[in-house]
Structures are given as structure tokens and as C-alpha cells.
Amino acid sequence: MIELIKLYLGTFAIFLAIDFIWLSAMTNLFYKKQLGSLLAANPNLFAAGIFYAIYIFGLLALVVIPAAEQNSLIKAIILGAIFGLVCYATYDLTNQATLKNWPTIVSVIDILWGITLSTLVSIGGFLLARWIGIGK
What is the model's pTM? Predict the structure, then answer.
């Protein structure tokens, strides 16, 4: 059980670090220009924290741990990309379907980011899982 807690916290840290870099760079360069008044002046950190907690849980349960149990980095990469596609497409395409003036370019860039982020975090989580002894 302690290994799973270590894996969760480590993967959470990897996700936060990578997403922080992306959001720090892209919020002003891209998202503010595209979304304007839709963006909150100050993000709701509580809601963001809950999202991150749930997302990492899903990534571990559906991608990292199954890949580690089969000792397959390729499986982690493929499933991580699929997980990112499904999760980010759900968010972006729902917004595009229900919000006025949701830019298509935001959906495209954000979905590509979700695929990239989830793949990178899956690789990091897989390597961490193997390092702490989870899997074969």
C-alpha cells in the first residue's frame, strides 16, 4: 500500500510540474487571447486540485499500473495517449458543443496538449512504478 501512495504522490508531482510549465507559458500566449472573458481572473485552485487528484487516480488505475504489471513502457505510452485524448476531448468538445464562441483552435491545441501531457506523465509514472517495485 505504501508503494501505491508513493506512486500516486510522485505521479501527481510529475503532472503538476509539467502542466505548470505549460500553463505558465501558454496562458498569456494563447488561452487569454483565445478565451478572453471566459477565463477567471484567478483560477479556482480547489476545483483544479480535485481535477488533478481524480485525473491522476484514473491515469494510475487505467494506464500506469496495468503497464507496470506487464512491464511494458509501450503500453504506458499508448494507453497514456489514449487516456489524454479521451479526457481532454471530453472537456473541449463538450465546451465547443455547449458554449457560444468556443474557438475550435482551443479544442485542437488543448486536446493535443492532453495527449502529450498524459503520455509524458504515463512514462514518468511507469518508470517510477518500476523503480519502487510495482509490477513484474
Answer: 0.92
